[in-house]
Amino acid sequence: MNSGTARWQRNVFIASFIIPTLVFFVVFTIYPVLQGLYYSFYDWSGMSNKKKFIGFDNFKEMFHDPIIWRAIGNDYFLVAGKVIGIMVIATFFAVALTRFGFKLAGFFRSIFFIPNVISVVVIGVLWNFIYNPQIGFLNAFLSLFTKEQVTITWLGFTEHTIWMLLPPAIWAGIGFYMILLIAAIQNVPASYYEAASIEGASQWKQFRNITMPLVWEQIKVSILNIMMTTLNGSFVIVWIMTEGGPDNSTQVMGSYLYQMAFRQYHFGYGASIGFVILVLSLITTIILQRLMRHEAVEMS
Amino acid sequence: MNAGLKNPVVKAIFYAFLIVWGISVIYPLLWTLLDALKNNEQFFRNKPWSLPEFPLLWSNFSYVWSKYNFGTYFVNSMIVTVGSTGLGLLLSATTSYVLARYKFRGSNSLYLLYISSMMIPFVLALIPLFFLMNSMHLINTKIGLIVVYASSVLAFGIFVLVGFFRALPKELEEASIVDGASYYGTFFRVMLPLSQPGLITIAIVNVLNIWNEYIVGTILVNDPTQYTLPVEIGVMQAEMQYRTEWGPLFAALLVTIVPVLLVYIFFQRQIANGITAGAVK
C-alpha cells in the first residue's frame, strides 16, 4: 500500500466522522442563531414577502416599551433570587451531607435530586395547584389557622406575583447544584480536615477556612450557570404558571419573546428580544466573573 | 475520618432541615398519585391532603390514556427521545473521537466552536428554527423534533466525549491497526466499547432532558397527533380553565413523571457523573 492511498483513507475517515456532525450542527444550531440576530433588524410578521429592513428600530422601540423593562427587571430578580436561594440551600445541604457524618446522607442526596429529573412543565402544573385559590394546598393550609376560608389568588396580584415564581424555581434547582458542590467538597483532600480537627477547629471554622475557599471555583461556575439558565430558560416556568400575566407583570424576556413572536406575530421584534438576551447574558457573565475573581484559591 | 457534629442539638436542627426538605420533594409526588385517584367533587369538598375515597379511581389513568390520547403522546415521546438520543450520540461520538485523536487543519477551532456554543442562549434560535423547519416541511413531524434535539445535545456530548477518548490508552488502537483493522473497524469495535461508560452517561442525561423538553416541542408541533407528553401537559393545563378534570390531570402528570423517575432510580450514578462532567468548564 503506498502512502498516497493511506493518506487518502485517513482523510476520508476524518471527513466522514467530522462532516455529518458539522452539517447538523450548522443547519440546526449555528444557522438559526445567526438568523435570529439577522431577523432582529427587520419588521416582520412571518410572511416572507413582507419582511422589511428597519435597522435598529426594533431596539429603539424597546426603549419605549415598558413591558420589556419590566421583563428585564423580572429576569434579574429571578437571577438574584435563585442565586441566593439555590446557593445558600445547596451549599448547606452539600456540606451537611458530606462533612457532618449523617448516616442517611446517601438517601437524602438521592431524594433531593428528584425535582431535577422532572419536566419544568410538570413542576409548573404542580405549583399551580399549590397556589390554586379554591382547591390549592397553600390556601387550605393557611385556612387551618384562620376562622374563614383563605382564598388568596396567589398568582393574581398585579404587583409582586413574580415572587410566587421564585419558590418553584429554587425548589427545582437545588438538587443539581447540590450534586456539583458535593463532588467539589469530596475533591478536597481529607487530610486538610483531619489536620483542622486535630487542632480543634470547629465545623464552622472548617467550613469558612477549608471548604469555602477550596470549592469557591465550583460556586463561581454554579452562579454563572444559574444566571445563564435563568436568562435563557426561566420563561418556561413563567409561561406555564402565569403566561407572563396578570397584565404582563410576570413577563420575563424569554416569555415576552415567545408571546411577541408566536402569539402576536411580531417576529422581528421577538428576534430582537433574543438579541438582547444574548447581549445581557454576555455582559452579566463578564461582570460576575470580575466580581468573583479575586477570591479564588488554587488547590495544590 | 469524619468527626461529624458533636453538639446533639445542632445535629437535630440540621436533621430537621434535611427531613423537611426531603418531605417537600417526596410529598408532591405522593400527592400526585393520590390526587390522580380522586374525582372532581373530592377536590372541592375535601382538603388537598386528604386521601382519595373508595372506590379509587384507577380509571382516571385509562381515561387519560385513551380519551386524552396519552397512549399516542407516550409513544411519540418515546420515539423522539430514543431517536434523538441515538442520533446525537452517533454524531457526537464520531466527531469526538476524531477531535481527540487526529490532528487536521482547523481541528482546534472546530472543538472550540462546539464548546463555545454552549454559551449561546438557545432562545435566540427559536424563531428561525420554526421557519427553517417549516420550509423543510419538518413542522409537525417526529423527524423534525429528532434532528433539532439531536443537534442541541451535540456540544455537551462532544465536550464530555473528547475528554473521555483522550483519556483512553493509545496502544489499543495501534494494536488494532497493526492487526489490520480499518479506521472504522477500530472505532466501532475497539474504541466505542471502551467508551461505553461515557456514552451511557451522556445518553441518560440527554434522555432526561429530551423527554422533559417543552418549548421547542410547543413551537415545532401544533398537530395534536404529534404532541409529546410535556407539550400535551401544557395544553391540558391551559384547558383546565374551561373544563376541570383534576384527577385526570394528575394521572397525566404521573404518566409523564414515572418513566424519568425509573431512569433516575436505575442510573443515579451515571446522572451524577454526567452533571459533574458537564459542569467542569
Note down, in words, how this protein is organized.
The complex is a heterodimer of chains A (300) and B (281). With 300 residues, chain A is mostly helical. Chain A has helices spanning 3-39, 57-63, 66-99, 105-112, 120-131, 137-143, 161-187, 190-198, 203-233, 235-241, 253-263, 267-293; strands spanning 42-43, 52-53. Chain A has a two-stranded antiparallel sheet. In chain A, a hairpin with an 8-residue loop joins strand 1 and strand 2 (52-53). The relative contact order of chain A is 0.13. Chain B folds into two domains: 8-59, no CATH class; 67-279, MetI-like fold (Orthogonal Bundle). In chain B, helix 1 packs across helix 14 (246-279) and helix 3 packs across helix 14 (246-279). The interface between A and B is large, with 96 and 88 residues.
Given the structure, what is the number of helices of chain B? 14
Oligomer state equals heterodimer
**Principal-axes shape call of chain B:** globular
Q: How many domains of chain B? A: 2
Q: Bin the strand percentage of chain B.
A: under 5%
Give the SSE map:
The complex is a heterodimer of chains A (300) and B (281).
Chain A: H1 3-39, E1 42-43, E2 52-53, H2 57-63, H3 66-99, H4 105-112, H5 120-131, H6 137-143, H7 161-187, H8 190-198, H9 203-233, H10 235-241, H11 253-263, H12 267-293
Antiparallel strand pairs in A: 1-2
Helix pairs in contact in A: 1-12, 3-7, 3-9, 5-10, 7-9, 9-12, 10-11, 11-12
Chain B: H1 8-35, H2 40-45, H3 59-66, H4 70-101, H5 107-116, H6 123-135, H7 142-152, H8 154-167, H9 171-178, H10 183-194, H11 196-212, H12 215-220, H13 229-239, H14 246-279
Helix pairs in contact in B: 1-14, 3-14, 4-7, 4-8, 4-11, 5-8, 9-10, 11-14, 13-14
